[in-house]
Amino acid sequence: MRNYDLITPEGTKDLLFGECIIRRNIENSLMELFKSRGYSEIITPGLEFFDVFNLNSRYFPQVNLYKLTDSKGRLLVMRPDSTMPIARVVATRLREAELPLKFCYDQPVYLTEPALKGRSDEIVQTGIELIGSQQKMADLEVISTAVDSLRSFGMEFSLEIGHIGIFKELVGRLEATPKEKEDIRKLIENKNFPALNDFLDTFGTSSVTNALKKLPALFGGIEVFDKAEELMPDDNIKRLLEELKDIYNDISEICGGEAPITVDLGLVNKTDYYTGLIIKGYLQGHGEEVLSGGRYDKLISEFGYDVPAIGFAVNVNGIEKAIMKNGVFPAEKQIDAIVYAEEGCEVAALKAAQELREQGLVVENALFDDLDSVREYAREKKIARVVVIDSESKEEE
Amino acid sequence: MNKPIRMALTKGRLEKDTVGLLEKLGFDCTAVREKGRKLILPVPDANIEVVLAKANDVITYVEHGVCDMGVVGKDTIMEMRGKFYELVDLGFGRCKFALATKKGYDFYSGYGIKTIATKYPNVARSFFEKKGMDTEIIKIEGSVELAPLLELADGIVDIVETGTTLKENGLEVIEDVAPISARLIANTVSLKMRQAEIERLIELIEENL
Fold it and tell me: What CATH number should be reported for the domain holding residue A349?
């Protein structure tokens, strides 16, 4: 039998030194940002019952979940997402709580990715959920938090919004089976224009099929709204478009042209429990979205409590990769002093080191047998002070 | 000038056809034509950098965003899948996936589970799944036509261009699975971050197809 005792599982990795600092910096700065806007942290278990993710809508395909059983043989999964567990908590323990509720979280999620594709199965997500408000102000609050988050990484970024409701309304007006609707959704998601055109032609020509054909091409700046307006078949859909345009204008004003805000009416991802507004964030030079979220007004009702919500999550691993690609590696904490104990003076040395730490210095205890090795080590690590504790106690610089 | 747009091309016939297309658009592809052993080549006046790769790798590079765009056959897309935009049917590299058996073999008869040999297990599996048919799929790396001749499989799912190889080996197409042609694909973030440049290029390409 083969042993796997020297490697980590596919899709996971150990982090060391600068990598840890980068990760923690990202997590800490985001959590600080969220807390400064009044979000409270929530921590949910890494293990959940499979049933939490097996609602009617089945947002996560069973094959992509890490599954295990508890001591009673019940099926558990490693948390693939934080929003659904938070929805569960809100629908149970917080049913009587005053709304709105504002949560932030910082925890890994687990999903199996195809092997040998260079993807992680363990992704740290840091994000927010704003529960119990359907106001436009809630949308603006969450989007502007998303913009602040993206800005905090100091890289060129862009934020994109969309509205899944427009697609849902359009496809709802088509006489198509659920399977056919799903095929249309996939073709729009992949911006597969040739196949989308061919497939929609089988439904005849109408303002609805025409709008669906154009949907994946409707992305870019403010000009998209004018193009879309002409295409939308009725006032219901035009109203959704108008709502989105309002938000677009407000967010553009908030950002003041500092970063491009774009819109894509063809954002129609499958695993989304989203019902309205959709938010995506991109960093220049990073091939995948680093921020993803939206409005999910029906999700919590699947847990038996009908309350609207909106949120987003930042993919911390993605940000890490982008930062490392830019080559900015943060330094470890500089050690200010090292304390060496002559034989028999260990207790005195530990006390002396502690005193220095209380003065605010970063102090190491020397772990060498002779003073020359300590000096050598200090030179290499650029430690300015070597403190020697012997029976008379002296100090060197 | 902006960083060039990286375009991964599937080495071989699709590469030649794409270079032909780029030249038709008026771009100077001398460097690509005289590439020697180089794998990354400039098309300077188009601000494009051509990357030559195997078909599967074109998708991998585009998915990760290290190449902004790619030219790859629909066959590879159907087998590999993945997250990218499939923007244009370039029309060249046309052929098809088809189900073939030994001449005169009645594939759909009987209750036994059929065995299919193929280089494209995902394509074969989803084809029979849609029919609600349980099949046993065996992955073959080389000439798939051998499998039914050696009686390892009842049929094959493979790329068919002219059908000559099938004919010479006593096989025949009994059903088309899907048409194939070259596709222009793009990384999902690149299309957004470099929309104007990519859209201009696509417009040019579509005018010249």
Answer: 3.40.50.800
* Distance set, CA A225 to CA A187, A246, B52, B119 (Å): 22, 10, 39, 46
Note whether B15 and B9 are within 8 A (CB). yes
Domain count, chain B: 2
Q: What CATH number is given to the structural domain containing B40? A: 3.40.190.10
Q: Does B17 contact A at CB distance below 8 Å?
A: no
Nearest residue of A to residue B179, measured between CA atoms: A195
Q: What span, in angstroms and rounded, lies between the C-alpha atoms of A270 and B104?
A: 43
CA distance, residue B151 to nearest chain A CA (Å): 32
pLDDT per residue of chain A (397 residues) written in tens, 0 to 9: 788 999 999 899 999 988 999 999 999 999 999 999 999 999 999 999 999 999 877 788 888 999 999 999 999 999 999 999 999 999 999 999 999 999 999 999 999 988 778 889 999 999 999 999 999 999 999 999 999 999 999 888 999 999 999 999 999 999 999 889 999 999 999 999 989 999 999 999 999 999 999 999 999 999 999 999 999 988 999 999 999 999 999 999 988 777 789 999 999 977 568 899 999 999 988 999 999 999 999 999 999 999 999 999 999 999 999 998 876 667 778 899 999 999 889 999 999 999 999 999 999 999 999 999 999 999 999 999 999 998 876 555 4
Q: Please choose, from the candidates A382, A350, A351, the residue with its C-alpha nearest in 3D space to the C-alpha of residue A367.
A: A350
Indicate if A194 and A280 belong to the same structural domain: yes
Decide if A74 is inside a domain: yes
Residues of B with CB below 8 A from A192's CB? Answer: 85-87
Chain A neighbors of B83, CB-CB under 8 A? 288
Place of tokens 């599967």: B56
CB A194 to CB B89 under 8 A?
A: yes
Which residues constitute the domain of residue A381? 337-396
The interface predicted TM-score (ipTM) is 0.84
Of B65, B89, B186, the CB nearest to A286: B65
Inside any domain, residue A388: yes
Question: What is the C-alpha separation between A131 and A299, in angstroms, rounded?
Answer: 11
Q: Where do the DSSP E strands lie in B22-134?
A: 40-43, 48-53, 69-73, 85-89, 95-102, 114-118
Assess whether B202 and B139 both reside in one domain. no
For testing contact with chain A, the best of B74, B189, B194 (most A CBs within 10 A): B189
